[in-house]
Amino acid sequence: MISVKKIADELLFTLSTNNSSYQMKADQYGVLLHLFYGKKLNDADDLSSLIFMTDMGFCGNPACVGKNRIYSLDNLPQEVSGFGTGDYRDSMVALLHEDGSRAAEFRFDSYEILDGSYKVDGMPALYDTSVTKGETLIITMREVASEVWLKLYYGVYEKENIITRAAKIINKGQRNITVERLLSMNLDMMFFDPDMIYFTGRHAFERAPERVPVKHAKIEVGSVRGTSSHQYNPSFILCDHNANEEFGNCYGFCLAYSGNFIAAAQKDQKNQVRVQMGIHPNGFSYLLNQDEELMTPQVIMSFSDSGFTTLSQQYHDILRENMCRGKYKHEKRPVLINNWEATYFDFNGEKLIHIAKQASELGIEMLVLDDGWFGKRDDDFSGLGDWFVNEKKLEGTLKQLGESVNAMGMKFGLWFEPEMISEDSDLYREHPEWALAIPGREPNRGRYQLTLDMSRADVRDYLLGRMTDILSSAPIMYVKWDLNRSICDMYSHVSGKEHSGELYHKYVLGVYDLLERLLKRFPDLLIEGCSGGGGRFDAGMLYYSPQIWCSDNTDAINRLTIQYGTSFFYPISSVGSHVSACPNHQTGRTVPFQTRGDVAMAGSFGYELDLGKISEEEKEQVKKQVDRFHAFYNLTHEGDYYRLTTLENNDSCMAWAFVAKDKSEAMLTLVKTQSEGNPVPTHVFMKGLDPDKNYKCIIKDDTSVINSGSAFVNAGITIPSVMMQYESVIIRFEEAL
Known about the structure:
alpha+beta; 10-stranded antiparallel β-sheet
């Protein structure tokens, strides 16, 4: 709900969800001040009195306040902070005017309230469904000395406890301006002493949470790699120092964007916390001619006063229902086997058919043909860009292969890396100007490949044409969309130097454009996003791919940490997770086959191994794992997720649970990570059950007990056997009627 009250010559704006309120006001000078974000207020509340003004020294005063020395933009809590006009903290907006001056001082002009959610130009955003509908507040600000306008977008999803922010800058003047910085949000939080939790890592070890107190030295994370990156995820949490899974105030910030980003928090001289998020300003500048405009990505915000679990579940629900799209948003996704770790580049048609035959006999439902099926592509050094089927290698057409797989009762999927190009390719020899490379410089190579200039329409048209021909030629229902290098050497042969700072952003817009056009042509296509695993795991990509390969690291024990960090923001249904071979190809570790399956069950399930090299006992386990995945699908993909253990307090096991929305059933997974001689019992406390219902708790199929939900939550469950290191167990709960 959005309410606006006029009080004297000021306007008070209050955005309310079921459990939170966000309040700001346009004051008598037109400055948009932030008052509050947190637990829900009463309708009549006005928190203007929270702002205490004093002359802090060396804090200048805008001309409009005359001799009032206590009014300074340098210490007021603002919704918009502009560079160069007296606010010396990090700015949200920075402009370069045609005369060479740099000033951005915005004042309130008008507002409007719209029924329904707002769209973001050329980028993903939360959208309305028959189940969930948003409301939009647009506040228009005007720069005091130029014809530059700024629109601030606020979206409210009341019952989901979600508030969103975005911004759009418009040049209505006759003189050009250059936008040097435009973030999606600025938020100055008074009387809050928080920790910041961000998610860091590297290739094959993504989204590990780190928690630090917010002080006067800025905490800033982000990416300038052209993607959201393995190293930092575009999401973070601000929380009370003592906040945990079930206690404390927590604020989430999640950017729906797949390119360079920045996220920062810092206390100012008044101990207010300035929070910012948006497109990274490094290497960014955007020229706006008259009547041109630029919009930012959307920040999805949520608040919980009862810890991280509630916050995570709010994000899971909104992203699953209002960001993911298409047939497979809710429809059951097939269990797949990917040939990559079984064959790498060394395959032919006969090998693929053999893999499919073995898989079909075990109940696996789809074969995905990975890298190496096109052009001259027998290693990493050639072929990317030549999206023509290598029929000699496949020993037939792609249609014949797909139909042979279909004849076994399986679906067929295909790997692409559309954004990349090999220098040893026919495409590069024909169009070297399509690759990102700076004239006169040797380009930086990643995986010995270059990046296509996705800002170019002709590049996107070529890729759409080739992918359309291939997807139309064979029964392909799934595409794995990969990207295997960070992006640099930004230079476009079709953009002038005055537009060079726009390329990183236009690259991302180009990727989104290609994905949108491809899905319009193939609306039932299931796309799984990938960037060397989890290098582009963000809310923006979920708009096009409802599942994303979580990490190239398939070691089940490492995956406990990776999937744990991922779960803070992203729904489990979006996590691509597979059973792979042991010793594991990344770590050399050997983990029981059952444990590998139980860990992979916390995601969209599949296999990444040579089925011909596993034992008969393990083949029987595959059948059981596939059956179990289907049996628990509604829980894992539509239920509520609970972290039962934490990384900080993980002495000997990791545990998590799924509970049905109606509390009628649940499943708990526990993995023993450490073992010792003469062990103590393995014990875990359940979460999420209805305390007033009785449940039958089934452990290892042959042991069960009936107790109340309250008993399992407050007294817990003891595993009735000694668990060895890396052993796992799935415990089922069924309502006892």
